[in-house]
Specification:
Length: 91
């Protein structure tokens, strides 16, 4: 479940915060949530903009795993479906 704080930022379950944007224009699904995007945005830029640590995530796009080496060249488009998993340490 996502929660927001006073600043209007959304706290992601994996501890990442991102600015909540209204749905408009192109949109995709990230972990089941609608997210507004700029069509053609590289996956790497999207992850960085949303505050993900790109060294500690795994991404599935439209049912296929995206290799970390492809984050820079993989472009996002309307109706894409991403599943992003954050790795955390602990014991």
């Amino acid at each position: 479940m996502l929660s927001s704080n006073v600043s209007g930022r959304v706290k992601r379950p994996c501890g990442i915060s991102a600015v909540h944007r209204p749905i408009c224009g192109e949109e995709m699904y990230v972990n089941g949530q609608h997210i507004a995007i700029t069509e053609g945005m590289p996956l790497l830029r999207f992850l960085q903009t949303e505050g993900y640590d790109t060294e500690r995530v795994a991404v599935e796009r439209n049912g296929k795993i995206v290799k970390r080496t492809a984050f820079k060249t993989e472009a996002l488009y309307d109706d894409d479906k991403l599943e992003i998993v954050c790795f955390v340490g602990g014991g």
